[in-house]
UniProtKB/TrEMBL annotation:
The lineage of its organism: Bacteria, Pseudomonadati, Pseudomonadota, Gammaproteobacteria, Alteromonadales. It comes from the Bacteria. This is DUF3800 domain-containing protein.
Length: 376
């Protein structure tokens, strides 16, 4: 089967106004919180905690680099028994705890000094699993209502997610009863009624105006006869695999090389497709054993670091975020600034290096904590 890389990437380039996507880079990848599948069970989800899936790593311009990895390994003073460089060798604990690491300081400076950049993708898997509810309701609105709610769809999705998290166990139980995301036609009205009642009972954490908007939006679905994006799918399967996220950069940066850590299930899916660029089959990706490729090992550290950061943003309240930020010691502040510098340096090359699918709270907390924006 063929996949046209230009069709796959066109919308992202035009909508996000991405630059330098045709330049030649070499991307290295590793993943963190790779649950491989997400589905509903009698206990809620098939995982104990639905942490963000993170696919991240380092990247450099062109096909080759001249960085001295031996000097890095020597500076990090790794134990001889360590076969690979992993996040646990750099720092342990929560994200703010890892910021105290001297080895993190050494690594970040080395990456900056050796003309590497970073890239990462972060997916809040539960948030992603419920946004189709909002998109389905928008599809059923009249033209005027649709125009209004499309402008507010990100805040509505985030508010629905916040309401769900407030009573997650009950919501997931009901999703399973309705065989979500495969709502049957004769159950659409009942499901819509459940959504309205659930929002009304569990939205106290929202401000009054946002609670009103979310409730009115949900009430607009009560007369629906279909919910397009949550019908005709497989019962209970929220995410069948993460292939599309591995595919994103291979299409977006079609002239680059993409070196992934070995992931058999994803490799099998890749093998089902030919990537085609203007009628020509391209082979711009490979899967390798991380112990054989130091760049992938550093990507493991980056993926683990940003996975820790995603948990920090998701699980820490606004007040706690502010308190932690104000109490950071000098080393933590320096390391946080190095991460910010690395993000800014990479973003200046191409904003396509970064992609998030997260709730509004996570987005705003990131802007506050990492980029010093007064937004929470």
């Amino acid at each position: 089967m063929q996949l046209d890389v230009n069709e796959m990437r066109r919308t992202s380039i035009e909508y996000e106004k991405l630059e330098c996507v045709d330049d030649k880079f070499t991307f290295y990848y590793d993943e963190s919180n790779n649950i491989r599948k997400l589905h509903l069970t009698s206990k809620g989800l098939n995982v104990e905690k639905a942490c963000n899936f993170v696919l991240a790593g380092i990247v450099h311009k062109g096909e080759y680099h001249s960085a001295d990895f031996d000097s890095l390994k020597k500076s990090l003073c790794l134990q001889k028994s360590a076969k690979e460089i992993k996040l646990k060798h750099i720092g342990k604990g929560s994200f703010d705890r890892i910021l105290t690491s001297e080895k993190l300081n050494i690594l970040l400076k080395w990456i900056l000094d050796n003309d590497f950049y970073i890239h990462y993708f972060s997916l809040n898997v539960l948030y992603w699993s419920i946004v189709d509810i909002v998109d389905s309701i928008i599809e059923n609105l009249n033209v005027v209502e649709r125009q209004f709610f499309i402008q507010s769809h990100m805040s509505i999705k985030s508010d629905l997610y916040k309401v769900i998290v407030n009573n997650e166990a009950l919501f997931l139980e009901k999703l399973r009863e309705f065989e979500y995301p495969n709502i049957k036609s004769d159950k659409v009205k009942e499901f819509s009624g459940f959504l309205v009642g659930f929002v009304k009972r569990n939205s106290k954490a929202l401000s009054e105006d946002r609670r009103y908007l979310l409730t009115k939006f949900m009430e607009s679905a009560e007369d629906s006869t279909e919910l397009f994006f949550v019908m005709n799918e497989k019962d209970h399967i929220l995410i069948s695999d993460f292939f599309i996220y591995y595919l994103r950069n291979t299409c977006l940066f079609k002239n680059s090389k993409h070196v992934f850590d070995e992931e058999k299930e994803i490799e099998v899916i890749f093998n089902e497709y030919d990537l085609v660029d203007q009628g020509r089959i391209i082979n711009n990706y490979s899967f390798v054993k991380s112990e054989e490729v130091l760049e992938v090992q550093l990507s493991d550290v980056m993926a683990g670091l940003f996975a820790k950061y995603s948990i920090f943003l998701s699980d820490t309240s606004n007040d706690q975020i502010k308190a932690i930020k104000s109490s950071l010691n000098q080393r933590q502040l320096v390391n946080l600034k190095l991460i910010e510098n690395l993000i800014d340096k990479s973003d200046a090359v191409s904003r396509g290096f970064f992609f998030h699918c997260v709730s509004e709270d996570e987005y705003l907390r990131n802007n506050y904590f990492m980029h010093n924006q007064t937004c929470i």
